[in-house]
Amino acid sequence: MMNTQSTLEGLSYSAMETALRSAGVNPVHARPLFSAVQRQLLRERVCSAAGILPPVQRWLDSDTVVPMTEMDLVDETPSADGFTRKYLLRLAGGAEVESVQMGFPGRFTACLSSQVGCAMGCVFCATGQMGFSRNLTAGEIVAQAHHVERELRRTNPGERLRNIVMMGMGEPLHNFEPTMEALGILTDNRGLNIGPARVAISTVGYIPGIQKLARHPKRYSLAVSLHGASDEERGKLIPINKRWPLADLMDSCREYSALKRARVFFAWTLIRGVNDSDDHARRLAELLKGMDAHVNLIPLNATEGFDGQAPEEMRVRAFQQIIQDAGLPSTVRQRRGIDVNAGCGQLKAKRVKFSR
Ligand code: SAH
Ligand code: SF4
Q1: For residue 299, which of 32, 129, 310, 313 is within the disulfide window of CB 3.0 to 4.6 Å?
Q2: Which of 125, 127, 249, 335 to mutate to test the pocket of ligand 1 (most atoms within 8 A of CB)?
């Protein structure tokens, strides 16, 4: 019989209590078990962790428990600057997703995938070019963070994961419940205890998801991918803009900001000759006027399926100067790891191409 239960690391604290209770085990055992699963990260170590008593051992060995996700590392690529490490992980069933470790001691970040492929079809994005295969489960999202955490402990003893960005493959708000379940587990102080403010959820502008996120009890950072300041221009890059146009998107961002009392981050992927002119910068500043906003400017990572280039460095600076003069704070995100195809979906795209 197929087991439809979640894998062990995909169980929230309360789901673990429920699972134990329904197996006839006292739910007080959820506390040491949850911590062991989320902090020991390996099945062998979970079973031998302090506080894991015989009834729990027996439950762990029973076939009602789906063991922790086994993910094969298919490909690993460090960048020349040493700040980025990209992993291509194979899930049960053969699907592959990318996770990226970024940063430096004290500030390590994991960039996680939420779906295999993506249904949103943004023309410049390697994941969008692949189409949609399936949603990831909460366990598969947590397992990616565990992979990065294990690698960090191995390569940087004493260090741990501090930040999570949902900026890998897929649209996290289009896989809302599993993503929220996974982030709930990763921010649980009985587990890896990552601060909710250190979790960023990046969305292409999936309005129903933004509205739900604004009402979610935890206060994660919201990052919205804009790339265009008019429906016409944005729609050429992001097809779903036709369904969820800019004015409605800005309304949902303002609502998020008001309900959460939080700054909203906006991503603007700069594409030479497409959205990088002085006029675009002025219109972006106009669009975000009066909002508590921060813009991340990301020069395009060229992909094979899109005929576009990054602007020159000077153009990026000029663009940034204009929005700065308009009072809009911004950061130019360095294309760290461009040498390892660290753009969204690019490692997998490259491999798919080579394997044919
Ligand atoms: N689906 C979500 C999160 C994943 S993509 C979203 O779109 O926001 C994370 C960011 O990478 C998005 O801002 C996206 O627009 C950007 N991105 C995708 N492909 C890119 C490329 N080739 N070069 C630069 N940025 C890219
Ligand atoms: Fe999907 Fe984001 Fe890529 Fe668009 S940019 S196709 S939403 S992953």
Answers
A1: 310
A2: 125
Burial of 121 (0-12, 13-18, 19+ CB in 10 A): middle
Q: Checking DSSP bridges between strand 109-111 and strand 163-166, what pairing results, if any? A: parallel
> In whole angstroms, how far apart are CA 17 and each of 24, 41, 50, 186?
11, 19, 18, 17
Q: Residue 346: pLDDT band by 50, 70, 90 thresholds? A: low
Q: What is the pTM of this model?
A: 0.93
Using DSSP's 3-state secondary structure scheme, residue 283 falls into helix
Identify whether the C-beta of residue 122 lies closer than 8 Å to the C-beta of residue 306: no
Contacts of the segment 70-73: beta carbons below 8 A, 24+ positions apart:
71/140, 71/143, 71/144, 71/147, 73/147
* Beta-carbon contacts of residue 258 (< 8 Å; ≥ 6 apart): none
Q: Which CATH architecture has domain 71-355?
A: Alpha-Beta Barrel (3.20)
**Quick one: three-class SS letters along 230-273?**
CHHHHHHHCHHHHCCCHHHHHHHHHHHHHHHCCCEEEEEEECCC
Report how far ligand 1's centroid is from the alpha carbon of 132 (Å). Answer: 15
> Where do the structural domains in the chain lie, given as residue ranges?
8-60, 71-355
Whether 175 and 209 have beta carbons less than 8 Å apart is answered as no
- Which residue matches tokens 């000029």? 318
**pLDDT tens, 149-159?**
999 999 889 99
